[in-house]
Amino acid sequence: MAFLPRAFVLLLLAVVCIQLSGAVADGPDRCWCLNGVTKYVPREEIEEFSIFPKKSKCGNVEIILTLKPVNKASKAVQRCLSPDKKQGSNLQLCWIRKNINNSPTLKISNCF
């Protein structure tokens, strides 16, 4: 009989620890983008984008594009964009100017 309450307490403690570890973390322990897209992506194909600054576990600025779905049945696709290319630099400047409320994503229409 004493085993059941102890098991429940341990399970509850494990769930709380998992929740807290997810709330404290500010992202993955690695880079999201291993290789950025080096070619230009037409802005008509981009729905929104996110920029992640350098962090302790990833020394790269990461730009993640969410592309518009090809048709209504398809899902949006995400691609990484190299921050070193001209388009990456332009999106970083737009992010600095337009993302005044620290939103996690920014619509591409806000930049042009």
TrEMBL record:
GO terms for molecular function: chemokine activity. Residues 30-90 form the Chemokine interleukin-8-like domain. GO terms for cellular component: extracellular space. SUPFAM superfamilies: Interleukin 8-like chemokines. InterPro entries: Chemokine_IL8-like_dom, Interleukin_8-like_sf. The keyword Signal applies. Pfam families: IL8 (PF00048). It comes from the Eukaryota. One of its GO terms (biological process) is immune response. Keywords: Cytokine, Signal. Residues 1-25 form the signal peptide. This is Chemokine interleukin-8-like domain-containing protein. It comes from Cyprinus carpio. The lineage of its organism: Eukaryota, Metazoa, Chordata, Craniata, Vertebrata.
